[in-house]
Amino acid sequence: MQSRSFILFALVSLVAACSTDRAVRLPRTSEAPATVLWAWERNEDLRFIDPGTTGVAFLAMTLTLERDSIRREPRRQPLAVPDGTYLTAVIRIETVKETERRPNLSDGQIAEIVELAQSALERPNARGIQIDFDATLSERPFYRKLVSALRSGLPDGTPLTITALASWCVGDRWLQDLDVDEAVPMAFVMGADAEPIRAFLRAGNDWTEPLCRASYGLSVDEAPLAGLKPGRRVFYFSDDPWNAGYLKKRYYP
Looking at the whole model, is its pTM more than 0.70? Predict the structure, then answer.
């Protein structure tokens, strides 16, 4: 019953999105390759990839917001890629949930994050920034201000993307005026939403949020999703270090 309700709500949202007169934000054209591997905090030797077809989105740092401070954990594990690889620096943002240590979500924290994002672009071939922040409802206003500040603070033409919970892309319209180039739907580890969203896509439906329609975020450790639209960029996640064998498998139509 809960799954049927979720799908119905998503379909209603789709109709509403199509019928509204309000301008919608579409993903901008990207020069990133059609395949991108997420390289998380571990030793990754990706010299086997073809930089002409495959890019890398590497975890550059993890930022934990607490009260009015930011605890920064830079990448400590080595990352080896071929010369000329299209790199996207991923910044993971987390917030302390305990009431007495909950972050202030201040303008000062935003300014510090922008400065850290600028530093992440110093790695050779780092072309863009991707923010990975599972913002709660109360954290969304802060996230909006952060995205706006990043857009203003990054060099002109720097691609700015975010990861998006799959639920944000189906029936949740809060991304519609966010000034990002692309929102990558994380269609894996979806928890209670997994089966409703799988059924929604399997039925041939597309994400209701236009910003989510340029790519998919998939895991090589989960069963492939049915009903995915062809011709979109795919970000792949793996629980284990990457090897050439993964790229020989077919996870996307």
Answer: yes
